[in-house]
Amino acid sequence: MSTPLAHSTRAHAERQPVFSAERVRADFPILAREVNGHPLVYLDSAASAQQPRAVLEAIDHYATTMHANVHRGVHTLSQQATAAFEGARERVRRFINARSCREIVFTRGTTEAINLVAQSWGGMHLKAGDEVLITHLEHHANIVPWQMACAAHGARLLAAPLTPQGGLDLDGFRALLSERTRMIAVAHVSNALGSVLPVAEIVALARQRGIAVLLDGAQAIAHRHVDVSALDCDFYTFSGHKVYGPTGIGVLYGRESLLAAMPPWQGGGDMILTVAIDSSSYNDLPWKFEAGTPNISGAIGLGAALDYLEALGPEAVHRHEQQLLAEATVALQTVPGLRLVGTTADKTGVLSFTLDGVHPHDIGTLLDAEGVAIRTGHHCAMPAMTYFGLVATARASLGCYNTGADIGRLVAALLKVREVFG
Amino acid sequence: MDTRELYRDVILDHNRSPRNFGRLEPADGAALGHNPLCGDSLSVTLRVRDQTLSELRFNGQGCAISVASASLMSEAVTGKSLEEIAALYQDVHGLLTDGQYAPRRPLGKLMALAGVREFPARVKCASLCWHTLNAALAQRAAAAPSTVSTE
């Protein structure tokens, strides 16, 4: 006999199986390999996450059973490929809770998605004297496209300041808003530091003033619950390979009314309805923004990756990564001369650090010799590095498959670096 | 993979205490080199008397390999004729990139860089100073400001 409480607990446990990183590891074939004579410790998921077998199998199944061009043929393979490709779009829509598949544009990645908005939306809305507001911690992909658009239209690019902990200085951000601001383009999560930005507050400020908002979600999508309807942003971008999917595929979410009014970006096949030599009529959303044969297998792989993550339970993955982040934050500080850069209370599993007297490049090489893969350098965020008076940091970043043993190996390897450099 | 081959004592010593670190003002030639991979930059200023490099200073931030390579280079090229420096550059380039390369002259302490070729991702770190030296010599010849990149 069970009490109602015990019953509900058991029901909950059945819905949400206990998360086991060890079991998750077994889903990722690459994690079984050795590097330089040591079992691989992969701590570079913020640069590119590894793919589970389910993703590799989905891509293989597509290629071996149904590959053909999409939206073109009446033959069986083309119909099946189209169904799988458009099915992946619906999978993405559900994952980020967009209202319609017309709001989901497949791109090559986050970079292409932001370029699309900067050029298409920017060409339509940016005029001389207008301002685009970003922050000092943006990835180059959310800086350079706006520089180019601003230069083309005589607009100005402003960057909001940061707190000493590496978060957004919201007062400083607010002070840069004006009646000239047309677009706010900010990271949801900083790639270099892991800081989570106050996107709800940012969107609310934009809504009050009628300013468009783009959120660069490349570093958020695998680690935070992303609901574009609840966020109420105008554009949201992310890449497949940061969320355990393949490279070369990404997503632009855009509010339908905005996408509908924007001019096409690239011209070609698939984005048209009719073509004559002197003019063409354009296809409906989202295909208006998808010129040429798309990355069909990439989209299918991305769909499989989102299925995989959903089956693991994004909440459980989040808890696991936060626990590991807390553990790693303590463990790293036992290494003499190590200084963490980016210490906001709300952050993802990113540990950016410097080591006194040792350049990050040298740390990276010595860790690699121990089989530990981390990123070193400016992380495509040179203004963020400059802001903190740094040229580079070493960055260990966590994924669903990392364990406490990985952190132990990282710390042991860093102590060896200390031995070499004294 | 043996990192002791890369981080030899000579490299670690020159990283800790770089020789000829600083800036010459005025200089006969100057150039700034960038490694876009890591954001590191390195400046070289130099003076030439009678086709001989009489003084060189380098400045900047970098990894142990790039700092030690620049420091070793500064010692190796000071007092050499421009012709000798061009030949030395060829030898160092061969040393860094080609496992079979036989230097045409004794390279002395520069041989400490031989381990770099086993680490392809780090060759640019070691060669940045040499590219920047060439740019500084070219700038002297053209008497115009110059920037180089390892890309």
Description:
The complex is a heterodimer of chains A (422) and B (151). Chain A is an alpha/beta fold and 422 residues long. Chain A folds into 2 domains: 15-44 and 313-421, Alpha-Beta Complex (Aspartate Aminotransferase, domain 1), CATH 3.90.1150.10; 55-310, Aspartate Aminotransferase, domain 2. Chain A contains 15 helices and 17 strands. Residues 1-14 of chain A have low confidence and may be disordered. Chain B is α+β, with helices and mostly antiparallel strands and 151 residues long. Chain B has a single domain (3-149), classed as Alpha-Beta Complex (Sufe protein. Chain: A). In chain B, 41% of the residues lie in helices and 20% in strands. Chain B has helices spanning 3-6, 9-16, 64-77, 82-97, 123-142; strands spanning 29-35, 40-49, 52-61, 147-149. In chain B, a hairpin with a 2-residue loop joins strand 2 and strand 3 (52-61). In chain B, helix 4 (82-97) runs antiparallel to helix 5 (123-142). The model of chain B has no long low-confidence stretch (mean pLDDT 91). The chains are: A alpha/beta (422), B alpha+beta (151).
